[in-house]
UniProtKB/TrEMBL annotation:
Pathway: Cofactor biosynthesis; thiamine diphosphate biosynthesis. Its EC number is 3.5.99.2. GO terms for biological process: thiamine biosynthetic process. Coiled coil: none annotated. Residues 20-226 form the Thiaminase-2/PQQC domain. It comes from Acorus calamus. Belongs to the thiaminase-2 family. One of its GO terms (molecular function) is thiaminase activity. It catalyses: 4-amino-5-aminomethyl-2-methylpyrimidine + H2O = 4-amino-5-hydroxymethyl-2-methylpyrimidine + NH4(+). It holds the Pfam family TENA_THI-4. This is aminopyrimidine aminohydrolase. Keywords: Disulfide bond, Hydrolase, Thiamine biosynthesis.
Length: 227
């Protein structure tokens, strides 16, 4: 039963973090840029800026996800964690192809784009989480938070009441769809389980990266407004 308690305790911990950081959480998951896609008022320049920067981010996300997989192989007590993470790596292959197709649709020259400061800072943060001394629990918490912010954000644009332009629907469906939602739930389940048996230090570090992800996502969305 202790294990069960662990999972429930981990779930309560995440709910507490979200409540304690509600304002930052809402700024990350209901950002004006995303709300402008949802209400159809987004201008194409902002969308193209976001698209180009996100391509650069996803390129850096690949080694980060590989590092989380390696930590899972070395530290996880649950074999199924590796299977969940492998699913994520497989979908990144398809995601990079999608970015190239979407970029050509919008005349965005992906190889001519330079990362803006918020993107550079976010990628440096991901690099720091790849270090071997960073605990698997801390890394999986960051990974779940990163994926969950996009899933919650873009699912807003798929709601019945949304006015998302047809040409942006594919982008919103990529991260807002139910399948990605279930994947984020699986990542949250892993995170809860690991938090349930984590030391006080690891719990504190995990909360720290949760907040740092929220801050990074807000700055990332802000980039769509230009430097
Ligand atoms: C900035 C950011 N955060 C999250 C995701 C979803 N992997 C993304 N593509 N870009």
């Amino acid at each position: 039963m202790e294990e069960r308690g662990g999972q429930r305790e981990g779930a309560r911990m995440i709910d507490t973090w979200i409540n304690n950081h509600r304002q930052m959480y809402d700024r990350a998951t209901r950002h004006p840029f995303v709300l402008s896609i949802r209400d159809g008022s987004v201008d194409s320049l902002s969308f193209k800026r976001w698209l180009g920067q996100d391509y650069i981010f996803v390129r850096q996300f690949v080694p980060f996800l590989a590092s989380v997989l390696l930590k899972a192989c070395r530290e996880s007590e649950e074999q199924s964690d590796v299977e969940v993470l492998l699913g994520g790596i497989a979908s990144l292959h398809d995601e990079l192809s999608w970015f190239k197709k979407e970029a050509s649709k919008w005349d965005v020259m992906l190889n001519a784009i330079t990362p803006q400061k918020a993107n550079q800072d976010y990628c440096r943060f991901l690099e720091s989480l790849m270090l071997p001394e960073v605990d698997y629990t801390v890394a999986i918490t960051a990974f779940w938070a990163i994926e969950s912010v996009y899933q919650k954000s873009f699912s807003l644009c798929l709601e019945a009441s949304s006015n998302t332009p047809a040409e942006l629907m594919e982008t919103c469906q990529r991260w807002g769809n139910d399948g990605f939602g279930q994947y984020c739930c699986a990542l949250r389940g892993i995170t809860e389980r690991r938090l349930g048996t984590a030391s006080e230090d690891v719990m504190m570090m995990a909360e720290g990266v949760f907040v740092r992800v929220l801050e990074s996502e807000v700055r990332f969305w802000d980039m769509s407004y230009g430097e």
